[in-house]
Specification:
75% of the residues lie in helices and 0% in strands. By secondary structure, the chain is mostly helical. The protein folds into two domains: 46 residues, no CATH class; 60 residues. Helix 1 packs across helix 3.
Length: 134
């Protein structure tokens, strides 16, 4: 076997004529050189012949009928489960909303930090001007 041997899926596609012309030619050239791949292709051909000999059976007919209403006990459990799920979702949304900082709080904190920075910058400029004046 060569390093770049096609995998069995590609060999099967080659056998079934499902490849592009370029890929089909490339695998065909590879098969001329690689006896291991020719053996795999022969096995696939044998499997294809055996499958073709299997008797054809139609798929069984399946009838699906819609249930008019759930049994009373199942209906009550379904109702309770739905209510509990809805309550859990509402609590989750409520608590997530409480934990998120509000935009006003974030903006206020940003302004406080910005003013503090401006004040420190002004003090630094004053000190620099004093040092330069000396």
């Amino acid at each position: 076997m060569f390093r770049n041997c096609p995998d069995p899926i590609q060999l099967s596609a080659y056998l079934d004529g499902e490849l592009s012309e370029r890929r089909w030619l490339k695998i065909g050239l590879h098969l001329q050189k690689c006896s291991a791949c020719r053996d795999k292709l022969a096995e696939l051909e044998q499997v294809k012949k055996l499958v073709a000999q299997l008797p054809h059976r139609p798929a069984p007919e399946i009838r699906i009928t819609a249930q008019q209403s759930p049994p009373k006990a199942a209906g009550k459990r379904w109702l309770w489960a739905s209510c509990l799920t809805a309550a859990a979702v509402l609590l989750l949304v409520f608590f997530v909303h409480l934990r998120q900082p509000q935009a006003d709080d974030v903006a206020g904190e940003y302004l406080r930090i910005h003013r503090q920075y401006e004040q420190q910058l002004a003090e630094s400029i004053e000190l620099l001007e004093e040092v330069e004046a000396q």
